[in-house]
Amino acid sequence: MDPGPSWKMFRRMQDSLAAAAALIYAAAVIHAWRVLPGAGGLRVQRTLLFPGLFLILSFIAVLSIPALRAAVSRHLWISYRTGFGQSVISVLVGLGVIVVVAGFIFWQVHAAAQGGRYPGGVFSGYAAGIGLLLAQAVIVRHLEKDPALEREIEDR
């Protein structure tokens, strides 16, 4: 099968969103390590260990729970059919949402550095979102191998 240019762009957008989210997360962790109070073990726990578990859980849940996988597959197919991820504007909107959510992490880290609550929850929530984005990238590859969708993917 040779997917059409619109599908290639859509698939590339899924990969780009996951990569951008992971890079932004890495930057947030590096920033947190520089400014957050507390021992290294606490920082590892709140920025890497717990969030890593949430990332893995969300990734596995989406791929292994049939109802979740079907819902995400349907969402991806509808997004593709409506043209999302196939234009510069839609890609920028997707990246913009990720950047805005990441801004919340940086804001929470800043507040914690000034004596506020420790921001463990935002790191875990963002990591769970990365797990979902990674699962979407995997599902897109499965969709392009679906014989029922093959013709539509090749034609656009």
Question: What is the secondary structure topology, with strand pairs?
Answer:
Blueprint: H1 5-35, H2 40-64, H3 66-81, H4 88-113, H5 120-143, H6 147-155
Helix pairs in contact: 1-4, 1-5, 2-3, 2-5, 3-5
Structural commentary:
This protein has 156 residues and is mostly helical. The chain has one domain (5-155). Helices cover 84% and strands 0% of the residues. The protein is built from 6 helices and no strands. The chain has helices spanning 5-35, 40-64, 66-81, 88-113, 120-143, 147-155. Helix 1 (5-35) runs parallel beside helix 4 (88-113). The longest helix has 31 residues, at 5-35. It is elongated, with a radius of gyration of 18 Å. The relative contact order is 0.22. The mean pLDDT is 90.
Shape: elongated
Radius of gyration: 18 Å
How many domains is the backbone divided into? Answer: 1
Tell me what portion of residues adopts beta-strand conformation: under 5%
**Straight-line distance between termini:** 13 Å
Largest sheet geometry = none
* Low-pLDDT segments, ≥5 res: none
Helical region count? Answer: 6
Compressed to H and E, one letter per element, the order equals HHHHHH
- Helix amount, in percent? over 70%
Given helix and strand content, the structural type is mainly alpha
* Total beta strand runs: 0
Roughly what is the average pLDDT, rounded to an integer? Answer: 90
Question: Keywords for this structure?
Answer:
156 residues; mainly alpha; 6 helices; 84% helix
Task: Offer a quick outline of the entry.
The chain has 156 residues and is an all-alpha fold. Helix content is 84%, strand content 0%. The chain is built from six helices and no strands.
